[in-house]
Amino acid sequence: MQLENYFEFVGSEKLDPQSSTIIRIKGHRIGIEHVLAYYREGYAPDEIAEEFPGLSLEKIYATITYYLSHYAEVEAYLTRQRERGEQAYEEWADSPSPLVKRLRDIRAQKLQGARV
Fold first, then answer.
1. Which of 24, 45, 61, 78 could form a disulfide with 8 if both were Cys (CB 3.0 to 4.6 A apart)?
2. At residue 70, what are phi and psi to the nearest 5 degrees?
3. Closest residue by Cα to residue 60 from 73, 76, 47
């Protein structure tokens, strides 16, 4: 079995450093970035399996092997994913929902009342 067969490349057929491809572990909604975050923090594959009980050790090893064998491309992918997450958070924080706005207003009023 080819290593790429363990993954779904959503948005493209392969990892392209300039694309908006998302890489998920086949049969799961888990992106490789989630498994690799633990791996990069020093977790062993069996420890990662404890964090993701639905993933087999085989798929975890495949993810790690893919990372090591396509290091530069996957590092670029991980950087893009992190940047996308930061951008999404900034957009959310800049334009909160009406409920969040209302809660912030209530909190500000309470804080202002407590200072008086």
1. 24
2. -130, 45
3. 47
Query: Average pLDDT of 16-34?
Result: 86
Number of domains the chain is built from:
1
CA 55/CA 80 separation, integer angstroms: 24
CATH number at 40 reads 1.10.10.10
Classify residue 4 by its DSSP letter. G
The two tokens of residue 60 are 């975890």
Q: Cα(47)–Cα(115) distance, rounded to whole angstroms?
A: 49
- Amino acid at site 82: R
Q: Tens digit of pLDDT for each residue in 46-101?
A: 999 999 999 999 999 999 999 999 999 999 999 999 998 898 888 888 888 899 88
pTM score, whole prediction? 0.75
Phi then psi dihedrals of residue 12, to 5 deg: -165, 165
